[in-house]
Amino acid sequence: MPFLNRLSALILATALPALAPFAAQAQETTLGVELNKTEEIETGGCRAFFLFRNQTGKSFEAFEMSLAILDAGGVIDRLLSINAAPLPVKRTTLKLFEIPDIACADISEMLLHDLPACTPQNEEPMDCFPLLSLSSHADAQLVQ
């Protein structure tokens, strides 16, 4: 058994450095979309602050998300389309969107159900779902 433990350790020690470029590549090919915070609007409604972390190696001239806004009971309250373009390469971009007639505390989830537009600069439109990494620091969750 000690021989197998040493053999396993040796295999791991030689394999992990070889896999590091693949891990870095996976991290560098994501488009992070983070619901960073929400705040009430004085006139009613909720303002959502999104951070877009573009690590894809491409700038996007079109990036539109269609979100289903779920209320506190988990029922779809409305659909919201937001245009986040442009998204420059290797940059974090802040975008603010207003959701009228619903308090932030009444939003349990924002469901990304479609990407009507996702076009890298000087390229054809593409399916961006595989590139996305969604997260939330707000009380409401951002999911797909």
Automatic annotation (TrEMBL):
Residues 1-26 form the signal peptide. It comes from the Bacteria. This is Tat pathway signal sequence domain protein. The lineage of its organism: Bacteria, Pseudomonadati, Pseudomonadota, Alphaproteobacteria, Rhodobacterales. The keyword Signal applies. The keyword Signal applies. Keywords: Signal. It comes from Tritonibacter litoralis.
